[in-house]
Amino acid sequence: MFTLTTRVPGWQTVRVSRRDEVLHAALDLLDEVGLDALTTRRLAERLGVQPGALYRHFPSKRALLTAMVEAVTMDDGTPAASGRWDEMLRSGAMEYRNRLLRHRDGARLVATGVRPDQAAAQQGWHRMIAMVRGSGLDQAGAMAAVDTVFAYANGFTIEEQARSDFPPTPAQRAERDAAFHTGLALILTGITTTASARAAQRAEPTP
Prior knowledge:
By secondary structure, this protein is mainly α.
């Protein structure tokens, strides 16, 4: 990464933050003002630079949002769960929700439509689909299962972050955690039932 110097009103020379520092400032600003009020102009003001200086690090707001999505959803080094496919999928969905909850409007940010460019993120997604195929689902079924679980996690989190009482008290958080786990269990039960039914169909002798 490189640094850049620019001039702000008053002809004071300012060293623009490195790319990761700009990114961290954007995440801090997101936590303070929310996604709707997050603008490159406001971010530049926070850093004390001209808005154009930011484009040396992020060529567009979409590029900045993509980097923010990567930062919010990035693996924090927690060891992945091992065991049955459904337990691993449950663990992945729970950790995903926890990451979204660390930032104001984290779930809405991820739902903006931008997708991480990191190869590791794509590889992780494909590994999860391959893991779910262990249930007996075919490729299309496994993709639908993973999409459904994580769409549920994102939608649930969008709803709870939009509540007027967010962030919740410890008691409210425990209640919402329980509700999330209940819904997730229902989805996983449906996936298991579907996988078993399809396996039974494949096992039936051909007339």
